[in-house]
Amino acid sequence: MNSTTFNKKETLTLERLPGESILRKLFSAWALVFIWVAMAIVASIISPVFLTSINLSNILNQASILGILACAQFLVVLVGGFDLSVAAILALSSVIFASTVPVSTGLGMMSGCLAGAALGLLSGIAVTWGRVPPMIATLSVMGIARGLAFVVSEKSVAVPMAKLAAYKFSFSVLSLPVLTWLIAACLLYWMLRSLRFGRNLYAIGGNERAASLAGIGVRTHKIIVYTLAGALSALAGLMLVVRTSSGVPHVGQGWELDSIAAIVIGGTRLFGGEGNILKAMMGVIIYQTIANVMNLASLDPFYQDIVKALVIITVVGATVMRAEKV
User: Fold this and answer.
1) Which of 115, 77, 80, 69 is nearest to 96 (CA)?
2) DSSP 8-class letter at 175
3) Phi, psi for 157 (deg, rounded to 5)
4) Do residues 224 and 206 make contact, with C-beta atoms less than 8 angstroms apart?
5) What residue intervals traverse the membrane (predicted)?
6) Chain centre distance of CA 223
């Protein structure tokens, strides 16, 4: 095969539109809604508190941070990678922001996001030019980010309420973290569906070799994706500070796996090339609802970790088996 041709299978993979048939789309989207409704019915039986406006608002606010992380993870998984550094970058961003707020809120936000983007860029370069497997590259960056977080501050950094008062507004359930999450998800949806760059990401994840032969700059696209993922992870850290009024260097341990589980629940193909960002966000809500129900049931935190681990194994295992059948 020469550089100007590729086989029929590769052509079909490259030309496949970023999505499924309309019928399958509707079915899978409604299936996620039905799953959540079924969970809500069971949860309301376990605890009458579940369907109260306060608790539902709490679920959304807790899901907002994981949701932004899941946006970052979705982009990387879409091109066939993994990013194990998202939670560590969140922690680093949170302590940078919290430490800088007394001087300048704007400077703190900019510094946190730039740090996240820089670490994402490092991951992208390691994966593309260094040919380091994504899991190893991002695991290394995770160590760097977590270490830098402790260098910035060895303990939690409290932020004076007055400094964040302007960011703690809330319109019904729409707090700033929730609003930021929704905007990020909608922008990614638009980018992936309307821009050539977004469609190229599906092509790369579906068949990287075919995408390269078609003239798509695979390395450049992947570097941009990892950089965006780093910036989004940092944004999640900023929103965590807005929500909790503190930056914590050890916060978010294990959230990188939560973000993977959430998007897989939402139907994202674990090996790239297939997924819908809005359905992935529905996966976030379902995953966060599971955590909320366990809290309402007063389940011991250690048992909660076991349940979450079982959920991750189940959804990832199901995805692998589905991929093997295709």
Assistant:
1) 115
2) E
3) -110, 110
4) no
5) 27-51, 63-96, 108-129, 136-153, 173-192, 223-242, 302-321
6) 17
Joined tokens for residue 2? 């020469």
Q: What confidence tens digit (pLDDT) does each residue in 10-21 have?
A: 444 444 444 445
Residue 135, token pair as written in the block? 């899991």
Per the structure block, which two tokens stand in for 163?
């400094």
The SS3 of residue 210 is: helix
Predicted pLDDT at 74: 98
The reported pTM is: 0.88
Sign of the alpha-carbon torsion through 295, 298, 304, 310: negative
Name the nearest CA neighbour of 242 among 109, 110, 70: 109
Handedness of CA 173, 175, 180, 181 (dihedral sign): negative
Nearest to 253 by CA among 308, 193, 174: 308
What is the per-residue pLDDT for 171? 64
Assign 214 to helix, strand or coil: coil
Using 70 as the pLDDT threshold, list the residues of the chain that sit under it: 1-29, 161-162, 165-166, 169-173, 322-326
Nearest residue to 118 via CA among 155, 146, 145 = 145
Closest listed residue to residue 222, CA positions, set 83, 69, 114: 83
Rounded Cα distance, 95 and 156, in Å: 8
